[in-house]
Amino acid sequence: MHRRGGLLAAGAAAAALALGWTLLPVGAQTDETAPAAPADATAGGGAAGAPGPYLVIQVAGEAEGEVVIDLNEEAAPKHAARLQALAENGAYDGVVFHRVIEGFMAQTGDVEYGKTGANIARAGTGGSHLPDLEAEFSDIAFERGVVGMARSNNPDSANSQFFIMFGPAGHLNGQYTVVGEVVEGMDVVDAIKLGTGGNGAIVGAPDVMEDVEVRAAEE
Q1: Which string of DSSP letters, residue by residue, matches 89-155?
Q2: What is the pLDDT of residue 118?
Q3: Which residues does UniProt assign to the signal peptide (predicted)?
Q4: Is 3 domain-assigned?
Q5: Which of 31, 39, 131, 178 suits a disulfide with 198, CB 3.0-4.6 Å?
Q6: Count of Cβ atoms closer than 10 Å to residue 51 Cβ
Q7: How far apart are the first and last CA of the chain?
Q8: Residues 193-217: pLDDT tens digits?
Q9: What pLDDT, on the 0 to 100 scale, is given for residue 50?
């Protein structure tokens, strides 16, 4: 049963966007809230492009199972290549979902401060050793299952963190880079441990990406 998704409340979205750190950045502190997802929502917001390569994520915690993300090399070639490179180097293995907001999104990918077993109080404020990326905004809508790149209020600050949408959020369209979409395992995404409060911070042990690998399109 889906317990998440749907539109972010318009007033909360406007308030969050007015902050110096916008929605879904590295280390944002916001007060947005969101209602639950439509029960018949399925993965995918129409992220066009040739299929693959795929990011294959083994999730553990309250959620257990495999999530497969189709990386969109046509819409966001630099961002897709970054996620692929970090996965191939094992950088994402053991990284937690540090920010999970019901009805909105689950954020992960902080390879600097978000590793299991570390003090994750700073999770969400770090990135990789690689330089930040220039934005690759597109006309792909942020719908359920779409994967976007987290950033600060600087559009060219995405690095390693990404987020998976539980439901549509039109106010993000054209403001964040869409790097792919979930093609398998949205039921696993739906089960990821929720955070608390408007910012979605996790209390206790967060769910984790135990293993992240890259699968070629032909596999």
Answers
A1: TTTTTTEE--EEETTTEEEE--TTT-BTTS-GGGTTS---SSPPB-----S----TTEEEE---SST
A2: 85
A3: 1-28
A4: no
A5: 31
A6: 11
A7: 30
A8: 999 998 999 999 999 999 999 999 8
A9: 55
User: Which CATH number does the domain housing residue 57 bear?
Assistant: 2.40.100.10
| Best CA proximity match to 55, nearest among 76, 38, 71, 74 | 71
Q: Tally the domains of the chain.
A: 1
Sequence-distant (≥ 6) Cβ neighbours of residue 32 within 8 angstroms: 8, 9, 12, 13, 15, 16, 23, 101, 104, 198
Instruction: Provide the residue range defining the domain that includes 86.
Output: 10-215
> For tokens 């969101």, what's the residue?
34
Task: Flag whether 129 is in a domain.
Answer: yes
**What H or E segment, with its residue span, contains residue 215?**
strand 208-215
* pLDDT tens-digit map of 154-174: 999 999 999 999 999 999 999
Whole-number Å distance between alpha carbons of 165 and 34? 12
CB 192 within 8 Å of CB 59: yes
In a domain, 33, yes or no: yes
Kindly state the tokens that stand for 160.
């390693």
Question: Is residue 2 domain-resident?
Answer: no
Cα gap 191→95, rounded to integer Å? 17
**194 Cβ contact list (under 8 Å, min separation 6):** 100, 101, 102, 200
